[in-house]
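A further point concerns the way the authors explain their paired sequence and structure data. For illustration, here is how one protein appears when written out as sequence plus structure tokens:
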Amino acid sequence: MDDLWARYRKWKGLDDRKEQIVTQGYYIDDARKTSRYYQMNAINLTVEAIANGQNRVLLVMATGTGKTYTAFQIIWRLWKAGVKKRILFLAERNILVDQTKKNDFKPFGSQMTKITNRQVDKSYEIYLSLYQAVTGNEEERNIYKQFSRDFFDLIVVDECHRGSAADDAMWREILDYFKTATHIGLTATPKETKHVSNVHYFGEPVYVYSLKQGIEDGFLACAIENIRKTVKTIEDEGLLQSSIHGVEKKPMPHLLCVTNMMLHGIDVPIQIKHDNTLARPLKDYSARDRVDVIVTNPPFGGMEEDGIEQNFPSMYQTRETADLFLVLIMQILKDGGRTAIVLPDGTLFGEGVKSRIKEKLLTECNLHTIVRLPNGVFAPYTGIKTNLLFFEKGKPTKEIWYYEHTYPEGVKSYNKTKPIRIEEFEPEKEWWTNRTENEHAWRVPVEQVLANGYVK
């Protein structure tokens, strides 16, 4: 064994100092959670690169593969080995910093702090911050300069393609100031353009784990693959094959959907129809068509062709696609069934058909929650403001809770490169089971809606 290790040391070029770094153990919690193989590859290669004197390191890992956890293990090992004693972790969104502190970085405990209110306390070893919290347009707002240039030994930049790639970006101000520190960039989508380059700054990635690899390995499984884990017999597989249904109105998306089904083991996806869901008369839906749960983002902002509205009762006839889908969902939901649906802001407001659909919703279903989303959630595809509606069929609405989902700190809009992220909904999750009125949440008794004749 000693001879084998000696050969490995020679192959890797490890002296005693480097060996101390690369052999430093991982953090292991009480649940004995272990890193996935690609995370271990990323962690080991990064630690080895730094042990060998590389001061700029780029890691490319697909969204959802655990970049923050990987960063934690890298920092933990370098910190415990004593080669990186003071570390700064930078992110662009407040929710990402908070979640990092609360979850993956929790083992750092009292040695860790989040820089807030532009206040600097130099007694900690692990610092987390929004880059906006330590920089600014005015010199006095650049609080990072309250630290000496050699204060940090390691700086980790999350989603580095968004800020530090450009030469004149604010993140680069921080990196240039702390130029003696080791810089690690994390990204799922490295940016390479004529004016912006991650590789130019950080160098070629020491490790790449792509979305394709994640899907192939099963770590980023689609819903079908997740369900297939429960398949044990030929009968189970037959049930899975027969349970996948779909309807797509447009030819090209229908072709893509059918192809996708075949690529995921649905041998003959004949139940993926090229049709219009709204073309089936509402009265043709029977008890056997009803379902327990509907989670949907139906098409909105469009109008149906002439004649489609005739498939609905006269009092609900309209050509607005979103309105018709809402009526359809109420029809096919079982008593006690639950729905979460994305709808345009204003769907429940208006006279005529809209007020009658709203009356049907509030008398037949408990519309208990509406989450109001900010502008730009679906940009650039549409600029329509949207809401999330949650309701349960079988009992009338008594009150409606509203929750105003605001932009995270430092964010003024969403777009294709800066989309809304699931982590931003943590405040709603915490509020959901312990509801109180606050600056973001309020409730409206149904009597107030009735007083307005279902119009407002």
Q: What stands out?
A: The first strand starts at residue 56 and ends at 61. Residues 37-51 form the longest helix (15 residues). The mean pLDDT is 84. The CA atoms of residues 144 and 419 lie 28 Å apart.
